[in-house]
Design a protein that fits this description.
The chain has 77 residues and is mainly α. The protein has one domain. The protein has two helices and two strands, in the order H-E-E-H.
């Protein structure tokens, strides 16, 4: 969990949402996010910026999970 309270799974869900939005826009369709915001072909750069943001957030949260303090059996970390 990050300092903002966001979990890796929540970040992954948002990233997958942006992937779905990108695919819909590339197919010439309008896409509506769960927030109610509608994105269209004209918003492709915005979608890709969101993809980049959530990809980086997933990496950040994943790294924190891997380097978190914990007790691990030798050879299983």
């Amino acid at each position: 969990m990050s300092a903002t309270g966001l979990t890796l799974e929540e970040a992954r869900v948002r990233y997958r949402g942006y992937l779905a939005a990108e695919e819909s826009v590339l197919l010439g369709q309008e896409y509506e996010l769960s927030t109610g915001e509608k994105l269209t072909r004209a918003d492709l750069n915005k979608i890709r910026a969101g993809l980049k943001y959530w990809e980086e957030k997933c990496i950040e949260l994943s790294d924190k999970e891997l380097c978190g303090i914990g007790i691990y059996p030798i050879g299983l970390r």
